[in-house]
Design brief:
heterodimer; A: mainly alpha; 4 helices; 0% strand; globular; B: alpha/beta; six-stranded mixed sheet; four-stranded mixed sheet; 11 helices; 47% helix
Amino acid sequence: MSGSLERLIQLAAKRHGADAAALRPEDDVFEKLGIDSFQAVELMSELELEFDVEIPDYELQGVRTFGQLAATIDKRR
Amino acid sequence: MTAGVEWTVEGGVCELALGRAPCNEIGSEMLAALERFLAELDVSSTRALVVHSTARGGFSAGADLRELYHGLVARPEGEQEPALRDFIDRIHAVMDTLDTLPLTTVGVVHGVCFGGGFELALTCDVLVAEKTARFCFPELRLGILPGFGGIPRLRRDVSNAVVRDLLLTGRSINAKKAMAAGLVSQMVAPGEGLAAARAVANQATKFDADALATTKRFMKPIPRAELAEEKAHFLRLAQRPALREALRKFVESDDLRPYLP
């Protein structure tokens, strides 16, 4: 598991009360965390600040899993 | 008071709390509530206004797109302009009044601050953003442009390049980026926005009312010609089938992120 992926999972799990050990790279971020559209917006801000990146929304089209999200973050670091 | 929109005045500071579920969408009820607030606000005994949201999701998700969609489909083509124009004229009057209040106005933004909500925030003199804040103008995706006065107000405050980036990509930006662009004056931890805004407002209570109002009038001219131009563009674009089709997709969508450009 890459460093970004691990940090992403830890952060998302802590923020939304999930068990980080139970989250897999192929899991759907939004379904697994059970978050609504407003929480999804907040999560993006938190991730950008945590990883010190900017992720334009249009690069998130089709991004659903922790692995895909970590890869999107890594491309911007 | 109007359900979901409440205000208090204490020690020369007025606090306007927006709390209409789900996220302070601006439709006819929010518009009427803001009109009533402004009619009742006594500027002679108030030195500062804090505008904040008690909605969990954020400051405001913008125009009430469901109400807009149902209003458009309820009227035959060619008969939509009077209702659209009436709403736009009234919301512009509210935004212009907020923009030019002879007080220091402080907006507190957390979470979603999109479209019309962003336009509302832009009427404030000073913006405090919590780290969760996210600013976005997704209107082009709907086949329109911001219609509540947002473009001239954004242009007044930040560079044209930033305006183009936000409008032409429809992407959202976080509080840090908004602060770097000069849009936000302070970024604070989640839950700390209101306290920071109250501190700004309390500063205003120490100042002479005439000096404060004169400085604001001098430094924050209202861009009337551009506002009228934006209104005309909006009314033309909003009457095309493209908006109705985009709104239909939005209303019927179960996408968790329907705002993605």
